[in-house]
Amino acid sequence: MKQLTFADQVRVQVFAGNGGDGAATFRREKYVPRGGPDGGDGGNGGSVWLRASKDTASLLDLHFAPLVRAAHGERGRGKQQYGRGGEDKIVPVPLGTEVRDAETGEWLGEVIADGDLLKLAQGGQGGKGNMRFVSSTHQAPTEFTEGEPGEIKTLRLTMKTVAEVGLVGYPNAGKSTLLSQLSAARPKVAAYPFTTRYPQVGTLIFDEMHTIRVADVPGLIQDAHLGVGLGHDFLRHIERTKYLLFVLDMGGTDGRDPTADFRSLRKELKLYNPDLAKRPYRVVANKMDEPSAQKNLAAFKRRTKEKPLEMCAELGEGVPELKAELFAHFFPGEKLLVY
Ligand SMILES: Nc1nc2c(ncn2[C@@H]2O[C@H](COP(=O)(O)OP(=O)(O)OP(=O)(O)O)[C@@H](O)[C@H]2O)c(=O)[nH]1
Ligand SMILES: [Mg+2]
Asked: Which one, out of 23, 147, 181, 303, has a CA that is 20 to 30 A from the CA of 160?
């Protein structure tokens, strides 16, 4: 059986803690025959929260443990003692996790940046102890209130990668090779399609103040918008990017026609989400070391009127030029002190 190593969509049930009941007790002390009411309030139940964490790569943990509970509040006690509040439960999730009601699909919120918090279920209020009910005409109340139940919700969590740049291309075009040239990420590279099975993000670091996240996603094929190949799972992860790099195999290695590939990639994006087709992009002509690359490139330029950036990702050729272009795009007017 294939082991599951990644999950970007999970259904979870979250249980906030119940509030503790208030107490109805009376003071009992030697030599004090009729002590007053001294029942304390119950503690509030804990709430369930999501917290975006840059160290969490997927929703896998939740996939395996989809029931999440915060602690109940303790009941109040005599001698005016309040019940202890139930501890909140905070669930770390990847940056870019959005939350919907599992039944209605209603959008409930999202966490994007590291440390972002979102409350999923509110803990119940603790009940009131009988000492709260004392008044001038009612000196020995036996009333107390029960704690309120914590919220219970069934939710669907979806993670959409957060990155500025998305690498888009057919399988085997060299996307992962390029990512490893741009960042410290070391995605698997191999000479067969669908090597990359789930999104990976690498950070292109110019200096401390200037970084760009780049998302490498599984190769796209025709009818991806209908879920063919790794389909939607792939497309969802470039929705949040601001800039696309179309990586084309200009060598036509697998008998592919780069022009047809490019048109089909554009079409798939548009069919999935028209906004994606409007995003700024750059065409990367990869594998320019291959024998037929020059000829293919000439034909590609003529037919598409695009001006691709020539590259040999494997050898790192064209990579400095690409970095410079990305810098100029994301930090216009700025200059790097060190390059
Ligand atoms: N000749 C040549 N081969 C390259 C170049 N860049 C990558 N490759 C090779 O192309 C193959 C596919 O590279 P990957 O980086 O895994 O391609 P990918 O686009 O990530 O592929 P998937 O993850 O399957 O979608 C590997 O065998 C690489 O070594 C290049 O510039 N020139
Ligand atoms: Mg890959």
From this structure: 181
Q: Is 242 helix (H, G, I), strand (E, B) or coil?
A: coil
Q: Can you tell me the mean pLDDT for 215-225?
A: 77
Q: What type of residue is 295? A: K
Q: What is the CATH number of the domain that holds 24?
A: 2.70.210.12
Q: Are 2 and 98 in the same domain?
A: yes
Q: What is the CATH number of the domain that holds 181?
A: 3.40.50.300
Strand order in the sheet with 48-52: 89-93, 48-52, 117-121
Task: Taking residues 149-161, report their average pLDDT.
Answer: 96
Residues 250-280 have pLDDT tens digits of 998 878 899 999 999 999 899 889 999 999 9
Domain boundaries, position 142: 1-159
Alpha helices in the chain (DSSP H): 60-64, 175-182, 231-235, 258-272, 274-278, 293-304, 319-330
pLDDT, one tens digit per residue, over 275-312 is 999 999 999 999 999 999 999 999 999 999 999 999 99
Ligand 1 near 181 CB (within 6 A): no
Nearest Cα to Cα of residue 180 among 163, 203, 164, 209: 203
Q: What tokens were used for 193? A: 């399609």
249 and 287 in a single domain? The answer is: yes
Question: What residues does 327 pair with on adjacent strands?
Answer: none
Do 198 and 129 share a domain, yes or no? no
Residue 174, ligand 1, Cβ within 6 A: yes
**Whether 185 and 171 share a structural domain:** yes
Residues 6+ apart with CB under 8 A from 332: none
pLDDT band, residue 57 (cuts 50/70/90): confident
Residues 170 and 108 occupy one common structural domain: no
